[in-house]
């Protein structure tokens, strides 16, 4: 598997979390009224979602090799402009044909003109429909807000994806922002936590407790000084709400 960029700047490796702390590298499933959602981690922010007959790639980076043998995407979601979320070479290598790629404007501005026909631009707060899915763009940004922040409000998107009454939230690179806390009826959430780029484990847990998804997956948790303590995240979440299921997958298979 190719090595992926895993932060907004260069990051140091750390020892991988022990396998006893990891759910086996099998897809995790969410039963819906008509279909099953399977979450397959690729690395860091990159995942493959199988939702019924649809296949969704999130933030595909790392080259085509990491997707070898995987089903082709029905559509693609990109959250932000940084190299661990957006990579034009990977998109080109995937030979997407006319597959739609949902992006914020800042991402469109940095992708080749040849891809324009594939792109659907969404701004914070907008909702779009694609292949029977409702997709809403959610703000993602650093706190306190600042013009020189690594993630400024309005540039990138988190996403809430909904189908058949089931709702999935993908945080993107964010902190414990009001727009996340105000989410309602989330069945599954992918939540980032890595310093100094996004938020602390404590803030991530506090934010999750505020909107109380049924199930939460820590992801995007490698920072400047290694991996965030996702076991502590689970402990904090379940201390505050035992009903929230915290699922740990292996998001860093390249770290042996």
UniProtKB/TrEMBL annotation:
The keyword Electron transport does not apply. It comes from Gillisia hiemivivida. Keywords: Hydrolase. The keyword Disulfide bond does not apply. This is MBL fold metallo-hydrolase. It comes from the Bacteria. One of its GO terms (molecular function) is hydrolase activity.
């Amino acid at each position: 598997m190719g090595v992926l960029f895993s932060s907004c700047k260069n990051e140091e490796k750390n020892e991988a979390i022990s396998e006893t702390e990891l759910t086996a590298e099998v897809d995790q499933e969410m039963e819906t009224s008509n279909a099953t959602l399977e979450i397959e981690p690729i690395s860091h922010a990159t995942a493959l979602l199988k939702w019924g007959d649809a296949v969704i790639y999130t933030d595909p980076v790392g080259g085509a090799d990491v997707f070898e043998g995987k089903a082709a995407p029905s559509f693609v979601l990109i959250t932000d402009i940084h190299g661990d979320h957006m990579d034009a070479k990977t998109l080109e290598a995937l030979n997407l044909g006319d597959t739609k790629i949902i992006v914020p404007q800042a991402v469109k501005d940095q992708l080749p003109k040849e891809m324009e026909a594939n792109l659907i631009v969404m701004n914070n707060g907008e909702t779009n429909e694609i292949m029977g899915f409702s997709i809403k763009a959610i703000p993602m940004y650093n706190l306190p807000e600042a013009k020189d922040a690594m993630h400024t409000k309005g540039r990138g998107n988190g996403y809430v994806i909904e189908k058949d009454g089931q709702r999935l939230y993908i945080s993107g690179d964010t902190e414990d922002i009001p727009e996340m806390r105000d989410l309602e009826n989330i069945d599954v959430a992918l939540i980032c936590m890595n310093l100094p780029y996004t938020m602390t484990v404590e803030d991530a847990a506090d934010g999750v407790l505020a909107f109380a998804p049924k199930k939460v997956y820590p992801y995007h948790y490698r920072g400047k000084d290694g991996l965030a303590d996702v076991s502590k995240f689970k402990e904090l979440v379940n201390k505050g709400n035992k009903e929230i299921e915290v699922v740990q997958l292996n998001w860093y298979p390249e770290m042996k």
